[in-house]
Write a structure and sequence with these properties.
- The chain is an alpha/beta fold.
- Helix content is about 40%, strand content about 15%.
- It has one domain: Alanine racemase (TIM Barrel, Alpha-Beta Barrel).
- Strands 7-6-5-4-3-2-1-8 form an eight-stranded parallel β-sheet.
- The radius of gyration is 17 Å and the shape is globular.
- The two termini are about 15 Å apart.
- About 40% of the residues are buried.
Length: about 230
C-alpha cells in the first residue's frame, strides 16, 4: 500500500487538533495514537517517518507480529483493544501503555505478571455511553476499580479511556466525552491524579479534542480504509 500521502495527512490532523483545542479552550499536548490495525509493517515505518511514534493495535497477536517485523523502528506501542487474561503473559514488557483495562480479574492478572520494578502504564476503560455491548466499567464502579489498581505497585494508573457510540450525531459524541472528563474530575476531587484522557477516533476526534482529550486513536483518517 502507498503511504506517500501520510505526512500531509498528519500535518492536516495536527492543524485540526490545534483548531479544536482552541475552540475548547485547551492548550495541553495531544498524543496521536496511530492505529495500524490490519495494515502491515510498512505502515509502521511510514508512521515513524511522518513523526508518529505512538502506534496503536487492537489485537495482541497482530501487534506482536508487527513488533517483530519492525524491531528497528523507534515507536511506542499502545494496546487499545480489549485484553484477555490469557494473553497477559504475552504482552508483559511489550506495550508502553494499555488503554482498555476494565475489570478486576484483568487487573489481578496484570499485577501477578508484571514485575514491580518495571511498572505497566494503564488506563481504565469507562463505558460512558451506557451501551450494553460496549466494554468498560460503569462510571459508578470506577472508584472501586481505580482503588484496586492503586494497590498494585507494578501498575501505574495514568488516566481513563472511553468510546463514543458510532454515530454522526456530535451531541451524542460530546455527551460521552464530557462524561468521561466529569468522571475524571470527580476522581481528582478524591485526590487521584488521572492526567490522560484517551478518547476520540477518526470519526469523532474533533469533538473529543474540544472536550479535553489528551490521546486520540486515529486509523482511517491517517492510513485509509481498513480491510477486514
Amino acid at each position: 500500500m502507498d503511504y506517500s500521502g501520510l505526512p500531509g495527512r498528519v500535518a492536516n490532523v495536527r492543524e485540526t487538533i490545534a483548531a479544536h483545542q482552541r475552540l475548547g479552550g485547551w492548550s495541553h499536548p495531544v498524543t496521536i495514537v496511530a492505529v495500524t490495525k490490519t495494515h502491515g509493517p510498512d505502515a509502521v515505518r511510514a508512521a515513524a517517518r511522518a513523526g508518529l511514534h505512538a502506534l496503536g493495535e487492537n489485537r495482541v497477536q497482530e501487534a506482536l507480529g508487527k513488533m517483530a517485523a519492525t524491531a528497528e523502528v523507534p515507536v511506542a506501542w499502545h494496546l487499545i483493544g480489549t485484553l484477555q487474561r490469557n494473553k497477559v503473559r504475552q504482552i508483559v514488557g511489550r506495550f508502553a501503555i494499555l488503554h482498555a483495562v476494565d475489570r478486576p480479574e484483568l487487573l489481578a492478572e496484570l499485577a501477578r505478571r508484571v514485575p514491580a520494578d518495571t511498572p505497566q502504564r494503564i488506563l481504565l476503560e469507562v463505558n460512558c455511553a451506557g451501551e450494553a455491548r460496549k466494554a468498560g466499567v460503569a462510571p459508578a464502579d470506577l472508584p472501586a476499580l481505580a482503588d484496586q489498581a492503586l494497590r498494585h505497585p507494578s501498575l501505574r494508573l495514568e488516566g481513563l479511556m472511553t468510546m463514543a457510540p458510532f454515530t454522526a450525531d456530535s451531541a451524542v459524541q460530546r455527551a460521552t466525552f464530557r462524561r468521561l472528563r466529569a468522571v475524571r474530575d470527580q476522581m481528582t476531587q478524591r485526590g487521584l491524579s488521572l492526567p490522560e484522557l484517551s478518547m476520540g477516533m477518526s470519526n469523532d476526534f474533533t469533538v473529543a479534542v474540544e472536550e479535553g482529550a489528551t490521546m486520540v486513536r486515529l486509523g482511517t483518517i491517517l492510513f485509509g480504509e481498513r480491510t477486514p
